[in-house]
Task: structure prediction
Amino acid sequence: MFSLKILPALGLLAALAGCATAPEHLSADYGQALKQDIAAQIADPDAVYAGDPAPGSDGSRVGLAQERYKTGKVIAPVAVASKIGASGAAQAQ
Result:
C-alpha cells in the first residue's frame, strides 16, 4: 500500500527534475532576432515623408474616400505597367 502512494510522487519528482537545470549551450546573441523584430514594429516618431502632404493627412480627401466606400462607388485603382522581364518575353506597356 505504501508503494502505491509513493510511486506517483517519485514520478512527479522525476518530471520536475528536467526543469531544474538551465540550458548552458545558448549563444551570446540568443534572443537578438526577437529584439530586432520588436524594434522594427515600433513607429518612428520623427518619420519624414517625401510626399506632400504626408500620407493620410488630407482630411477632405479621406472623407470623400470614406463616403465613396459607404455608397459603393469606390474608384478602382489604375493598373501600373511593368517593364521588368526577360529579353524576348512579352512585356506590359
